[in-house]
Design brief:
2 helices; 103 residues; single chain; mainly alpha; elongated
Length: 103
């Protein structure tokens, strides 16, 4: 009886386990990247909002006379907020769709 062929099958099963764990690690890394991108998006939106508020305060106090800078800061904050809300809505829609899947 030749046992070496059974050892070959045993080695193949090890590869299957390793590839499954690598796939799991890749999914975790991908989720972490997406999550960090979302956090950075929220931080950037917050920075734009704070800059717009500072520009409004500076204009109200008379420290600057440039209405153009004020409008640009407000527009950046507005666009960043709209984009963040759109991304959040898409994520929520995807979450709802995943929750409705039946296995």
């Amino acid at each position: 009886m030749n046992i070496t062929s059974v050892n070959t099958l045993n080695n193949l099963s090890k590869y299957g386990i390793d590839s499954a764990s690598k796939a799991s690690e890749n999914r975790n890394a991908a989720f972490e990247d997406v999550f960090q991108s979302a956090l950075n998006l929220v931080k950037q939106t917050n920075d734009y909002t704070n800059a717009a508020e500072e520009a409004e305060t500076a204009y109200a106090l008379g420290l600057t006379d440039s209405t153009t800078d004020l409008q640009v800061a407000q527009q950046k904050a507005n666009l960043a907020l709209q984009y963040t809300v759109a991304v959040r809505n898409n994520v929520m829609d995807a979450y709802k769709e995943i929750m409705n899947l039946q296995i």
